[in-house]
């Protein structure tokens, strides 16, 4: 027992310092070797960050950009940027946020910082055109749907600053007209487009795409007057609508764009057609045909033929209506315009149907049905099916109705014979021509029986 106690007492109570030092030196040696192998900075002096660098790391993106603008002396640009950031916050509070806030989008903030600073620097030296260029750039830069309010802000700031008669400011007016038209603010769009024409008329300025600003503004005014005419047309106020459409037609004719001029003449023709003035409507449709023929525009030519057919039909000129619809079908067939071809065939079938030429109507309805099958248009296919069924039914009824009405033995024999063979019987092409003969035969049988 004493031996055991002695062994326990003579054992080490504290850890051996020498062994710990050995382990620590071994660990440091391994760490030094790893640092040497990995190219660590142990043998290099530590890099010390400056206070501005530390502040930049600690601060947000918004704070850093605002501080930079103030340090560089662009106080007005800072105020404008801060105002826009506040507007973005207010908009996000009133509506459901769709994406990250503006203050967290680095590319947009840096772009605004650069170009607003350049614009302010240009103002210091009175370089108004340069200032407008920078703001025009920002207006074009914010083209995404969620950024249209920013685009509107920069275009407006480009037009209401000093020197707003410059080329960039005039182009900004054209851009503003497009934005207002997109938003449905037609009066504002009209005002900006008219101001653009007034400023660019004699200057010969081109926009950034190389298009003359005076022509671009006229094309815009044509679209604006077209949109303005929609409301009176819906209210059947044809006088007001025609006044606006004539103004739009004048702008289209001066725009040096034949495609737009053709569209304007077609729209005017439709308005006169709706007003019941088919004579004037046909004049504009004829002009549209000439323009579309020159441009080799089969789609425009086809719709003009269809509109012309509607006016001639309203005047009771069926033969001329059929001619225009036949031309529409030929143009559509030769240019692969399948929907137009189906429409033309169904229109031709309807005219023959109302004229009680059921066999001819059935032929055109069948053509429309075949085109609808190729297109896979279910609604058009169902419409064609019903039309074919109606035409065939009327053709059969017309052929045998006289026998049904007379109820003579001879008529009954013909009906029974037809009933036995009708399953495999095809409709004859001269069924409508024989209808009168069937009626006369039944009438004669009736007279004979009475005698």
What features would you describe in this structure?
The protein has helices at residues 2-10, 17-38, 51-58, 61-71, 75-94, 106-125, 128-141, 148-159, 167-183, 186-200, 213-234, 238-254, 258-274, 278-295, 298-314, 318-334, 338-354, 358-375, 378-406, 409-421, 431-450. Helix 9 (167-183) runs parallel beside helix 11 and helix 11 (213-234) packs parallel to helix 13 (258-274). The model is unreliable at 1-29, 34-44 and 424-451 (pLDDT under 50). 78% of the residues lie in helices and 0% in strands. The protein has 451 residues and is mainly alpha-helical.
In short:
It is built from 21 helices and no strands. 78% of the residues lie in helices and 0% in strands.
Question: How far apart are the first and last residues' alpha carbons, in Å?
Answer: 158 Å
Give the overall silhouette. Answer: elongated
How much of the residues is beta strand, in percent?
under 5%
Portion in helices:
over 70%
Count the beta strands.
Answer: 0
Radius of gyration: 42 Å
Note the total helix count. Answer: 21
Task: Catalogue the unreliable spans.
Answer: 1-29, 34-44, 424-451
Indicate the structural class: mainly alpha
What summary fits the major beta sheet?
none
- In N-to-C order, the SSE pattern is HHHHHHHHHHHHHHHHHHHHH
Q: On the 0-100 scale, what is the average pLDDT?
A: 82
Topology, element by element:
Elements: H1 2-10, H2 17-38, H3 51-58, H4 61-71, H5 75-94, H6 106-125, H7 128-141, H8 148-159, H9 167-183, H10 186-200, H11 213-234, H12 238-254, H13 258-274, H14 278-295, H15 298-314, H16 318-334, H17 338-354, H18 358-375, H19 378-406, H20 409-421, H21 431-450
